[in-house]
Design brief:
heterodimer; A: four-stranded antiparallel β-sheet; 14 helices; 8 strands; disordered N terminus
Chain lengths: 417, 418
């Protein structure tokens, strides 16, 4: 085992910052509208790269480079640290547009670019280190905690975490640990780890979302200094040590995490609707009179129903971002507690929106014809991607419903979500 | 190709391999094969169909003869028995069941649509008969001396790897200046080629749904009937129902086709329940000192709801299969007619059964979590892929057919009032 001093020297790559971490923003005049426009403009290219992304089993370097250049990773990054600090609606819209072009790339982007909000619970020093000189910060966050050992000035940890979406292009990861407590249950924490300190094992072989590269990351005898550890906010609530004034950074995190996935999910189904529209415009009915599907009364019904369901899904998602910000603001400005029950309520709202999106996707998929299930079919890929997303632990609405109700009536939740 | 009178005598005297075999025993044999089918799922997917050994087992169990006329070496069990057998096979391997059901089931259509001479021909000397069917007329039949020349390629011929024949819809070309009419041709294996084009789909990979190609194939006159496969004339019974003195051979096509498909869907539902049970009885729920998932209400609920849906689906399919038998009987007895709307109505009910089965699989797929459901190679993943693929089948487009059903019913009722 390496000692704390040795380990500390491995972590200091970005520690020597004279000005307390003030980092210039790459494009000071960039607007939220322009950011969304850039995402929309990228959709077609992302579609064309879907097959290659799936084949690579991770986000492509070229895609990542373009995301970096467009500033997508800085949407909700604090201005102080070189980010644009746009609002959550902008974040949701950009993620949705990217996922609409490529669900896997959208997932990686959403889960790595959204996490400045998770990092905001870390001590200021950790954030100064994370953003470094240039504000390059892309960070998956892995909740499933593993045991860590106390060491002078911090902790030592060995082990692995699965499902590290985007670990290949990440600058850091945040990983869950369990700190032993004398005479009590171990305390769950989130530790900030540099890219150079983890290894990647490619164990991601999935029926959908294969392009997310949600691989295993491992660390061995890694020393994590005290200031790089924060309570696992998704489980234990918000921190009172506020580094940023913007209330967006000071809320509970579970609902925000759900909003990340919700944006990708809605974008995925929007991408399906795009393809369905093409199909209806171009494909003739199989039997006489062989008119275009869009002329057929039944397909007109399907299309209208899909549009309605998906619009409903997106409306629920945007309402959830508003409710989330309202709860953060009330907490910071008026001292109204952002309760765990409220966190779950917003979580449920996003899940409910997802249900509507599933409804639209099912209808699209089952009425588009069997050829969509050919291995190379793009519509089939969206469906596989969506099916994989549906199995995600955050998409278990029945479980969340019980937990919300328990919290509402004053009982502890049975599980984190 | 034409049979001699002597061969017909042989065929008429043919007994099934096990004259005393009961319907329950047939179904029990399907249950007994489930384990081997489950073990063989991955290989069957890879192969595109079940193994030659499994084919042999199906043949020895008598599955291919379930609906085949007794006169020609079949067991002539009823449609509910066929449905029960298919459900059990699908519970073992959905793709294999698709291949089996759509190869074994069409003995019923042969027994119904074709005349004695053709039936004696195709059921052959030993009574072993397997036939994929593709009703959509994707090829032509042209008049030639003594028979028909057939050309075309029929896609999605599920069951074809082990088929001795295929039944295909054709456009009949005649020199009478009229537009082509529709017919059904029965074609032995030596007259067609199975294309090596099955694969590249996400689900139901083991269903053996290759295309069949005919280039100048020849069949005798009696192996083509001038019927719309999807909507044959049923009024007053069929030629086959009189030959076999069994009204089962006087039912509609859609009702039976839907029984084949929906029985498979029900089987997939039970397969997913089995798999979910095997997952939740070893995995723990969340938290310290956690109970097994199977001991936790949130995991129990999914199983209970899914089981309820699959049970309802099973009853719906078996009930429809029995009603198919009943209406056909009343029709032959002259007490009522097997109407087009009856066929569409039975289909609609069984489409809803398939939807219930899908709902159940969907619930279990989600509840079993990403590592058990979405990862390649897991059974739950396979069941989800299989049933998702099946849902894209035209026969399961229940919304599209719903308006047809209503329109047909309203039209028939108007006709009665007029």
């Amino acid at each position: 085992m390496i000692n704390a001093e040795q380990a500390g020297s491995r972590q200091d790559s970005k520690m020597t910052l004279a000005d307390g971490g003030a980092i210039p923003v790459p494009e000071p005049k960039l607007t939220a509208e322009e950011m969304i426009r850039r995402a929309t403009a990228m959709r077609q290219t992302l579609r064309e790269r879907q097959a290659a992304t799936e084949e690579a089993g991770r986000i492509l370097e070229v895609t990542n480079d373009e995301f970096v250049k467009a500033g997508f990773y800085r949407i909700v990054q604090p201005r102080r640290f070189g980010g644009y600090e746009f609002d959550l609606q902008t974040y949701v819209k950009v993620m949705g547009e990217v996922a609409r072009g490529c669900p896997s790339s959208g997932w990686v982007l959403a889960l790595t670019s959204g996490h400045p909000i998770i990092l905001a619970d870390h001590p200021e020093q950790a954030q100064i280190e994370a953003y470094g000189r240039d504000g390059e910060y892309r960070c998956p966050s892995l909740g499933s905690p593993i045991p860590v050992q106390r060491a002078p000035g911090g902790y030592v940890v060995s082990g692995f975490w699965d499902y590290a979406s985007g670990c290949d292009i990440a600058t850091h990861i945040m990983v869950g640990g369990l700190v032993p407590q004398e005479g009590g249950a171990p305390k769950p924490v989130l530790m900030l780890v540099d890219r150079k300190d983890y290894k990647i094992i490619d164990n991601w072989k999935m029926g959908g979302m294969q392009g997310t590269g949600s691989r295993r990351v491992t660390v061995e005898n890694l020393f994590v200094p005290e200031h790089r550890v924060s309570p696992l906010a998704m489980w234990v609530g918000s921190s009172d040590k506020k580094v940023h004034a913007n209330p967006m950074y000071n809320g509970r995190k579970a609902a925000f995490f759900m909003i990340e996935g919700g944006a990708v999910l809605a974008g995925t189904v929007r991408g399906m609707l795009d393809l369905y529209e093409d199909l209806l415009r171009n494909k003739p009915m199989r039997f006489a009179p062989k008119t275009k599907l869009m002329e057929h009364h039944e397909f007109q019904h399907y299309f209208g129903m899909c549009q309605a369901a998906l619009d409903g899904a997106e409306a629920a998602l945007l309402q959830a971002t508003k409710d989330y910000m309202d709860a953060c603001t009330a907490h910071v400005e008026r001292g109204v507690e952002f309760t765990e029950a409220e966190d779950r309520r917003i979580f449920l709202l996003v899940q409910q929106g997802a249900k509507l999106a599933f409804e639209a996707a099912d209808r699209i998929f089952t009425t588009a014809g069997t050829q969509v299930f050919q291995a190379e079919s793009m519509l089939g890929r969206y469906y596989r991607d969506l099916s994989c997303q549906r199995t995600h632990f955050t998409q278990q609405i029945d479980r969340t419903a019980v937990n919300f109700a328990r919290l509402h009536f004053g009982y502890p939740a049975l599980s984190p979500f | 190709m034409t049979s001699t009178p002597q061969e017909k005598e042989i065929a008429k005297g043919m007994a099934p391999p096990e004259p005393g075999l009961t319907a329950d025993e047939l179904v029990a044999r399907a249950v007994a094969l489930r384990g081997a089918l489950r073990e063989g799922q991955a290989a069957a997917e890879e192969r595109g169909t079940y193994s030659p050994e499994m084919h042999k087992a199906f043949e020895e169990a008598g599955f291919y003869r379930t609906l085949q006329p007794r006169l020609y070496g079949g067991y002539e069990f009823d449609v509910p028995t066929f449905s029960r057998m298919v459900m059990e096979i699908a519970r073992g391997c959905p793709g294999s069941a698709w291949c089996l059901a759509l190869g074994a089931g069409h003995a019923l259509n042969v027994g119904s649509l074709f005349g004695e001479r053709a039936q004696a021909d195709v059921f052959g000397k030993d009574g072993h008969f397997v036939a994929a069917a593709r009703a959509v007329p994707q090829g032509t039949a042209t008049r030639v001396d003594g028979g028909w020349r057939l050309d075309g390629t029929w896609d999605y011929c599920s069951g074809v790897p082990y088929s001795t024949h295929v039944m295909v819809g054709v456009r009949i070309i005649e020199d009478d200046g009229n537009a082509p009419k529709i017919g059904v041709a029965m074609v032995p294996r030596d007259q067609w080629t199975m294309l090596d084009n099955w694969g590249g789909y996400i689900g139901m990979r083991a269903s053996g749904s290759n295309s069949v190609q005919m280039k100048g194939a020849w069949i005798p006159d009696h192996c083509l009937v001038r019927e719309d496969f999807f909507n044959p004339k049923l009024s007053g019974g069929t030629e086959g129902s009189r030959l076999h003195n069994n009204p089962m051979y006087a039912g509609g096509t859609l009702g039976f086709f839907q029984t084949e498909i929906s029985s498979i869907m029900v089987g997939v539902g039970y397969a997913a329940l089995d798999e979910y049970e095997s997952i939740v009885t070893v995995r723990k729920a969340f938290g310290p000192n956690a109970l097994l998932q199977s001991q936790t209400p949130d995991y129990q609920r999914f199983y209970g709801i899914a089981l309820g849906k699959v049970e309802a689906a099973r009853h719906a399919v078996l009930g429809a299969a029995q009603e198919y038998m009943d209406i056909a009987r009343l029709s032959v007895e002259g007490k009522r007619t097997y109407l087009r709307s009856d066929d569409l109505r039975l289909q609609a009910g069984m489409q809803q059964a398939a939807e219930l089965a899908f709902d159940a699989v969907d619930i279990l797929f989600r509840a079993a979590a990403t590592s058990a459901s979405a990862a390649n190679g897991t059974r739950m993943n396979r069941y989800f892929r299989d049933i998702s693929m099946a849902r894209t089948n035209p026969g399961l487009q229940f919304e599209l057919k719903a308006a047809d059903l209503a329109k047909q019913l309203f039209t028939e009722r108007e006709g009665k009032q007029a």
